[in-house]
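Lab manual, section 2.4: Encoding a predicted structure.

Procedure: take the sequence of the chain (225 residues), apply the prediction step described in section 2.3, and record the output as structure tokens. A sample record is shown.
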Amino acid sequence: MFARDPDVILTMTPHEEAEAHVIDLTLRALPPVPPFVVRWNAYLFVTDREADPQRLKAVQGSQKSEKAKATYKMGSAADRYSQLVENMPPLANGRVPEDSEVVEYVSRQVHLSCRQDQLGFEHHLVVAKLKDPEEQKHWLKMAVKHKLGKRRLRKSINFGRLATEKEVQGDPADRDYVTYLALINRIRRWWARETGKAPVDEWDEDRRQGLKKDFNLVVDIHNAL
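Recorded output:
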């Protein structure tokens, strides 16, 4: 029972394909939105624009029944995914790989047809940087076939072939040694992300001066060279 007209009524109906549901929106003051399909992906639903929203899951009933009977049970989806929801990591500003931005990135980059149920989130994150879906599919299948960990999978992709365990371990003398390239790449990614949010000339003066102070060390290294 509603005290007033709701702004949005969302109806979620099981799709005929597993792990998929059809979303039907009733909007009070906005233009109509055609029904669309979402799929459950680890910790969240992602949109599947290729799926047909008309293909609803057939009602399960007795062959003697003359009328179809609704089989949806309130709370069934929540019961099914409650354990995942309880154990899921923070969805914003978290330090874990499965934070919302990274999950959305992997969901967007790695198509459902490429994914391997036997592998975890970290494996799919490794192949997300690959542009070719067929290449993603190839390396994920290799990971399943050879039981590759994420480090060996990453090395194999970099080598363009299956990396050996010895190659993954590297030279013991280099262990705990951090090269400057890793640090530079992290700074590059940080800079691209921050300038992508807003141009530097839109940053406030306090932030700009603080960053200049922080990066004095980099300037000193440059000048010393």
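Check your result against the sample. Confidence is low (pLDDT under 50) at residues 65-78, 88-98.
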